[in-house]
Every structure is written in structure tokens, then in C-alpha cells.
Amino acid sequence: MKINQLLSGVDIATTNEEQEFLENHHGGVRLTALDDRGQWLAQNLVRKGLFTISKDSNTLRRATKDETSNK
Predict the structure, then answer these.
(1) What's the CA gap between 46 and 69, in Å, rounded?
(2) 4-34: b or e for each residue (b if 16 or more CB lie within 10 Å)?
(3) Does the predicted model carry a pTM greater than 0.85?
(4) Could you read off the pLDDT of 13-55 as tens digits, one per residue?
(5) What is the Cα–Cα distance from 23 to 3, expressed in whole angstroms?
């Protein structure tokens, strides 16, 4: 890793489908409201640290910078 990557932050690669999901779901979304494909995309974005699942395990929301920096 180069020093300029550390200073500017590391880009997280997303597919076109994941990018569309990000654009369509700015705020929180209930996991039960998503179809199977949407839930699969949501789980991928959680693994990448772009979304978090709330404590009630039912709501998906965008991760804040503080949450992503701790990982």
C-alpha cells in the first residue's frame, strides 16, 4: 500500500448492482422489505463495511465513518 492511499483513504470496490442499491437506499431500510436478491446485496455491503445492521437485527443503515474506521 502506498502512502497516498493511506492519506486519501482506500476505495472499496462495488459492483454496478451494489452501487445502484446504495443510491436507492440512502437511509435505513427494513431487511424484511427486501427481496432475496436485495438481502444478498445488503449482506455483501455489510461485509464490505458500507452498511450496518441495527441491534434489533431488522434494520439496515449506512455505516458512518466512525464505524468503518474501527474495522
Answers:
(1) 14
(2) eeeeeeeeeebeeebeebeeebeeebeeeeb
(3) no
(4) 889 999 999 899 888 888 889 999 999 999 999 898 888 888 8
(5) 30
> What's the CA gap between 20 and 38, in Å, rounded?
11
What is the pLDDT at residue 11?
76
What amino acid occupies position 65?
A: K
Q: How far is CA 21 from CA 1, 38, 62, 69, in A?
A: 29, 8, 11, 22
Cell of 19: 452501487
- With left for phi above 0 and alpha for psi between -120 and 50, is residue 66 left, alpha or beta? alpha
For 20-33, the DSSP string reads HHHHH-SS-EEGGG
